Amino acid sequence: MSAPSMAAALAASLPAPSTAPTPAAPVYEAIPPSMSTAIDVEVEIPITCVQLDALVVSKIIQHGRDAPLASAHGLLLGLDLEGVLEVSNSFPLPIHAHDDDEKVSKSIARYQTSTLRSLREVQGDDNIVGFYQATNLGAFLSQSLVDTQAIHQDRLRHGGVVVVHDISQTARGTASLRAFKLTPSFIDARKKANFSTSSLIHHRLTFSSILEEIPLRIRTNPLLNSFLKVLAAPSSTTQYTSALPPSYSVLDLGNSGLTRNLEQVAEGIDNYRTEEGNVAYLSRQIAREKSRLESHLAKRREENAQRVAQGLSPLPEEDVSRMFKIPPEPSRLESTLLLGQVDAYAKMLESTAGLGLAKMYAAKGGGE
């Protein structure tokens, strides 16, 4: 008997393996919303630090450089673990001239959904943890930024963060990246939709207490460190001592940046004065309507006193409130945000002017 036939005979003599029944697919029940926070332990740990990967930093800086005039913005993707918000990826959102248009908003939403689906298909991070926004000369407080951050803090697990990238600082050779989130007092005032003067005093809100800064750190990897070392290594193919040519931009005495900064300060002050004029006009309207209401009530009381003296029933006073439409007290949020912008421009002007004076004195001393 040959070897194949022997193996076949031996296999035929063995008992047939018993076929085990196929186990049923497990069925998972959805966690009730009331139990999700109790099971999710991480939700109780507050965010104490934001960690950006070097890839994310390079993508944000590149987007801010390519986009026109501080209009770059996008979403941050990552994971929050033990109080550290680890941002491992990001992608830009399209820029449109009219952000309030409903069609534009739907287009951005479709683009965001499509991008997240593509990242999920390639096993990439698709968990939104915040967004980034480019700014110029340090002035980033705006109504759109506050509204977007409020939506994120309402829907995301840890509220998410906003990373602000200052293009003007990066252009001078210092990458400026800061992380913020809205303060609880501002969130409480926004939920009540009341930013009147009394509400600002009650919540102790100023432009400096709308956002709270979160410590930010950048994580590099061995590949990036190796690349930077290659750039810094001496090169024999060029006349320079390194692969990167020397730059003398820090010695530039031009005042173009200072002029632009002064223009921004003046424009910010003009915008604030215009907003204050609008608030004052609305306040005068409210005072005028209240004066008319009080005058009418006084006349109605006198008339009722005469009717009672004559033995007649007094006229009702409930219809008086329907006769006079007193506008609500104007919101002071826009004025507060404009004050924050003026403060940021002024601080940047102080820094720029000090550096410019130091350069001028150094150049003067070198010339003598």
TrEMBL record:
The record's annotation in InterPro entries points to: eIF3h (IPR027524), eIF3h_C (IPR045810), JAMM/MPN+_dom (IPR000555), JAMM_MPN+_peptidase_M67A (IPR050242), MPN (IPR037518)
Pfam families in UniProt: eIF3h_C, JAB
Q: Which GO terms describe its molecular function?
A: metallopeptidase activity; translation initiation factor activity
Keywords, sorted A to Z: Cytoplasm, Initiation factor, Protein biosynthesis
Name a GO CC annotation attached to this entry. eukaryotic 43S preinitiation complex
Compartment list: Cytoplasm
Q: What does this protein do?
A: Component of the eukaryotic translation initiation factor 3 (eIF-3) complex, which is involved in protein synthesis of a specialized repertoire of mRNAs and, together with other initiation factors, stimulates binding of mRNA and methionyl-tRNAi to the 40S ribosome. The eIF-3 complex specifically targets and initiates translation of a subset of mRNAs involved in cell proliferation.
**What name does the UniProt record give this protein?**
Eukaryotic translation initiation factor 3 subunit H
